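User: Show me a protein chain along with its predicted structure.
Assistant: Here is one chain, sequence first, then structure tokens.
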Amino acid sequence: MSTQISSPPTPPTPKSEPQASPTAGRWLGYLGLLGPAGIWLGLLLVLPTLVLFELSLVPGLEPGGLVNPSGLENYLRVFEPVNLLVMKRSLFFAGGTTVICLLLGFPVAYWIALLAPTKWRNLLLVGFVLPLWTSSLLRTYAWITILRYSGVLNTLLTSPNPWLSNLGLPTIPRLELLNDWPAVLIGMSYGYLPYMVLILYASLEKLDRRLLEAASDLGANPIQTFCQVTVPQTMPGIAAASLLVFITGLGDFVDPELLGGDSTMTISRLIYNQFLKTNQWGFGSALSMVLIMLVSIAIALLLKFGDRSAAS
């Protein structure tokens, strides 16, 4: 007679406690890292911008007036001919500064990145950006000393020079550069040129030199090599540097104010006048929102081309 031995009963499996999903934990980590900066930006950037937008909808608003948004009258004033002229002049200064910085900065960045001895590159970069260690206001006052009618530049040009006399060259008259648009372009270009050089240097340093050698072996001259090899590889850096200079120049206040005088009114100076001189806070807020919109578009383009530059 066979006996059947029964197996011992299986103990019940303890129920596992519900665990937080990895996605939720990851988002909590993101919030912990970005929360302080987000609160800071919300209080000091987003909230003031919203207040500024509300003020821009109040026509004829003065300090202490009742804030009652009622329409787009202030924005319609932006399109008046005199204000459009101011905006065009601002775009001219920002665009002209960008072109000048690009024409002057690209050869310098190319030489430092590809031609200068490796051991001297860091020292050359530090020396080139050394003016940025001083205040922009001091640098602008230095240009006033140089460009004014009795300044350093006119003194050097009009002083007796026996070499020029022997060549039979005519006497150079004194230049009236200060309080006009050439002085503004000179001051802005001097101030933003280091930014252009630094970004272009970072782009040129990653240039694939094997392609330059291949172009030379295939019979391309230096101009063809530059246009068909160097420029396409560094185009993201050129775009990023140009947009950065354009954005900064569009909102420049110090150089047009001190070097340009009354004949070079820009949008930043016009906003300053509306808030602190004519007390037209509503119209000043509308101008500010227009400037913010222009800068935001430029920043979006900068981020787009900057991402391409980082990926290349």
